[in-house]
Amino acid sequence: MAIAKAERLMNLALCLLGTRRPLSKRELRESIEAYVEAFGPGGGAPGSDDSFNRMFERDKDDLRELGLVIETVENLDGDVGYLARRDSNRLPPITIDAEEAAALGLAAKVWQQARLAGAASGALQKLRAAGLPEDVDPYEAHSALEPRIPVHEASFEPLMLACRDRRPVAFDYRKATAARPEQRHVEPWALECWRGHWYLAGWDRDRGAERVFRLSRITGKVRARAGKFTADVPDVVTVRETVASWAGESADRSALIRLRTGAGYPLRAKAAHIRELGEGWDELEIPYGHGLDAWLVEFGPDVVVLEPAELRADVVDRLRAVAKG
User: Taking a C-beta distance cutoff of 8 angstroms, is the pair 259, 282 a contact?
Assistant: First the structure.
């Protein structure tokens, strides 16, 4: 559906840009293959005119939102036509200095491990053709450090497209405390990488609330669903802050745990104090906040909660739930 819409919008844009005179709705309907296939030529099946008019108005609004300047012209007979003049839609010359080119090259390197690598490389090639200085190599290393954003999850690309197109999705999701995944119906808002893991924020239709999902826990394929969003998309989606609070980053108290030597590096990185106990165990004091119990469960037998008692009880309950399946 998304590909068909993109192709339809592209054909409409080319048609409006290629004409020297305003084209009526009837002429556009008969010239664009997607309209002909969906509704037939002008004077098609009963009700097709209204359906076409609604689709055309949506397509026109989408193109204008993307930046295409579409003029509405009324002739002497009162008929309305549309066109997009090339001089009104011509971008100014692109000028990029060496520092800007280096920044673009660095941004492209970030996505080398993701499906966006091809798009990033293609964008730089287009900039080169549009006037990027020949003596500037946007891929040249300007630092000993090179950023990487690993994207190994197959769900990343379909969720990225769903966020862009405002399209509901369904997927099977396995919580940290569950033995088997369960289906979730989500209106995706935004994706964000935090500490090497990708997270999706969106509206969970089944629970009627905002939720954050870790992509590595999505099993199977992400399936698109018809229809529009039922909840408003917030202006700011705080994925990182939500995940941080679940991981105890915003904690105002501490927990004492026993951790197997050589295990649980993320816990060690957060620890305020570490004391060697011997016999393959260390004692750690870590921040205690909402969701810490779920995080500790992920480390299985490598972690034993010493205090507080309520955290220990929560972890034990979660482990028992997993054992029961």
Answer: yes
Cα–Cα distance, 200 to 191 (Å, whole number) = 5
State residue 307 phi and psi, 5-degree precision. Answer: -165, 155
| Other Cβ atoms within 10 Å of 280 Cβ, number | 9
Regions in the chain scoring below 50 on pLDDT:
1-3, 142, 144-145
pTM for the structure as a whole: 0.47
Token digits of residue 45: 């099946």
Residue 266 and residue 247: Cα distance in Å, rounded?
10
114 vs 110: CA distance, rounded Å = 9
202, 187 contact by CB (below 8 A): yes
In this predicted model, what pLDDT tens digit does every residue of 298-311 receive, in sequence order? 888 999 999 999 98
The first and second tokens of residue 184, run together, are 């979730």
For residue 215, CA distances in Å to 41, 50, 77 come to 45, 41, 58
Q: Rounded to whole angstroms, what are the CA distances from 201 to 163, 186, 197, 256?
A: 10, 9, 13, 31
Query: What is the token pair recorded at 323?
Result: 């054992």
Beta bridge partners of 254: 287
Q: Where are the alpha helices (DSSP H) in the chain?
A: 2-18, 25-31, 33-39, 48-65, 98-110, 117-129, 156-165, 239-246, 265-270, 292-297, 309-324
Residue matched to tokens 């004077």: 43
- CA proximity to 153, closest of 199, 206, 101, 215: 215
- DSSP code of residue 92: P
Beta-bridge partner residues of 287: 254
